[in-house]
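Look at one such:
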Amino acid sequence: MSVKVGDLLSSRTKFMTASEIRELLRWATADVISFGGGMPDPSTFPVEDIAKIVSYVLEAYPHRALQYGSTEGVAELRQEIAKFSESYAGIKARPENIIVTVGSQEALELLGRVFIDPGDVVITENPTYMAALQAWRVYQPKLVGVPMDEHGMVVETLEETVKRLRAEGARIKFVYTIPTAQNPSGLTMTQDRRKYLLEVAERYDLLVVEDDPYSYFLFEPIQVSPIKALDKATG
């Protein structure tokens, strides 16, 4: 009797779907300006700077650069990220608090792997970043969306949603937000709502996952602080 490979697949593959991002990027060619995916303008790539850095690293640290290293990331890089986080964003972090990933998609997948069990609740903005949903779908959470207005996630509705879910016995794992230049809406959460979100998180003992890929690349400065920079809670 011959066994088909499909018969040996794990049950979680039922929740795996084709990458929406990959499908969108299929239409991106040299002759097309695609608004489907977050593709930066190639003219902004610091090619010469990167070439100089790579050349320097290979000349000064050839064996370390080409050898396996710490899974958390190169220690010197994590130290510099910690310095940058505090000087630019006001976020105090030690190098040991930082993990370097291969893009945000790996970080999102790791969050799902570490925190989500089947049936757990993940609260997101509605709409939200579709690749995050794809990364977590395999772990079978219940995804609950909170509406947005011109000021970002409606945090009053978030608190009502948390109360309702808790009353129903749901286990809320975290609240996922893209507070600055939100994907896909482009909206930015106001400073007051960021503070309110932290108050809700502290009041109901919630974990907040702040996805902030765009604040360093804005066309116009936005006078808001990262949510983590406002967090005064300990423990």
Observations:
- The mean pLDDT is 89.
- Residues 75-89 form the longest helix (15 residues).
